[in-house]
Amino acid sequence: MTAPRTRTADALDVALALANPAPRPPRSPEPQAGHDPAASADPEASASAAAVPWDEARRIAADAGRDAARHAEAEAEDEVEELPLPGALGRRLAAPLEALSDLPAFDTAAMDGWAVAGPGPWRLAGSGAALTAGRAPRPLPDGRAVAVATGARLPAGATAVLRSEEGIAEDTAEDGARLRARHRDPDHGRDIRLRGSECRAGEQLLPAGTRITPAVLGLAASAGHDALAAPPLPSVALLVLGDELLVKGRPTGARVRDALGPLLTAWLPELGAEAIAAPRRVKDDPEALREALAGAAEEAEVVVTTGGTAAGPRDFLHAVLADLDAELLVDGVDVRPGHPMLLARLPHGAHLVGLPGNPLAAVAGVLTLLAPLLAARNGTDARPDPEAPLVAEVPGSGSRTGTRLLPAALGPHGLEPLRYHGSAQLRSLALADAFAVVPAAGAPAGAAVPHLPLRWGAA
């Protein structure tokens, strides 16, 4: 990769400039759903005239991901890897998954009983021991029957399976062991899993781009595959900004625990990405941030930062991005929480997603910018799930505009907004199944709204 162009800048000058930023329009406290006094003050609440609507921000992020995917495909067609089945988990199929064999590969018994040939009664063949899975049986002549177990390969000539409870086996001195139906003969093909009834060899089972889940691994194995071709996951470097953050122990003095490092690292595989290393902690210093960003952009395709996106005295991200000649694609989104998020393209092509420092606001930023970016890079999308009704009313936010993302529990009656939804709070997130997407005007109970699922580690 080509190193990004930099220029020498005095750290003190940058810090002084940022300590006295251009004034921004004031913002009222974040609106609430329900009664949550702890969420009434939102330190992320600085608006920007450049903020784009939430839907538009997600579209821009997806477009950026598709552009990056096209460029990567043109540059590195040979990077597709052949991975043994367990190692392919979480990746995407580089090519359609085709069946290498008919499924089932041969006619099999769907029930315990007897394989019968033609109409009864039947003479029992063999020693009376049942055919079981894994054995290749001899052909069955017409008028004969043989005991069979579920899943066993049926002999050539078998026309049906007579279930155990529907047959009577008898020994007669004249004719030996005989079998007859208790009520009537089984219909032709009864309780037989016919060869190729699920698929035929060469048939496409799944399209390229499908995420490789445990179920996909099972299907691939049953269809004859030992390995799967998958492109590399987008690489992500995670930078956690802030002098106040602790990496272990209890909050003490004026310092707090870093919640986003563990949360985002564990979430990246579900989002279709791979962290290049453990989160790097970066102190509140413009030169340290510039050095960390330049290094991360050389190593990863996507850089994710937490904190430093607003206009406070120690928020240096905008100035450093300008110093690196980065192109801002999104600078603030009209959404609560998480308004001061951003998306930028760095000079050599890597993308940077700047998340707010408050944990719930950062999660909103992931769902707004990072998830669509990564999904598009992987050839899929991150659209909201179909609408679901709200279990409780979500009050409006007065004259303010903007989308609201509220953690919610998804139950049989719909989406129930959870109480602790301030931008710095994670309590509701741990109980949430989704984020309800609610307009600024609010919505009454029963109103159908889109929702963004939180599939923590799920397929």
UniProtKB/TrEMBL annotation:
Reactions catalysed according to its record: adenylyl-molybdopterin + molybdate = Mo-molybdopterin + AMP + H(+)
A GO MF label: metal ion binding
GO biological process, one term: Mo-molybdopterin cofactor biosynthetic process
A Pfam family reported for this protein in Swiss-Prot or TrEMBL: MoCF_biosynth
Enzyme Commission number, as recorded: 2.10.1.1
Amino acid composition bias (Low complexity), ranges on this chain: 30-54
Organism: Mangrovactinospora gilvigrisea
Annotated family: Belongs to the MoeA family.
Function: Catalyzes the insertion of molybdate into adenylated molybdopterin with the concomitant release of AMP.
Disordered as annotated region, ranges: 18-83
Biased composition (Basic and acidic residues): 55-74
Enzymatic class: transferase
Listed cofactors: Mg(2+)
Domain MoaB/Mog: 237-376
Full protein name: Molybdopterin molybdenumtransferase
Stored SMART domains: MoCF_biosynth
GO cellular component assignments: cytosol
Pathway: Cofactor biosynthesis; molybdopterin biosynthesis
Keywords: Magnesium, Metal-binding, Molybdenum, Molybdenum cofactor biosynthesis, Transferase
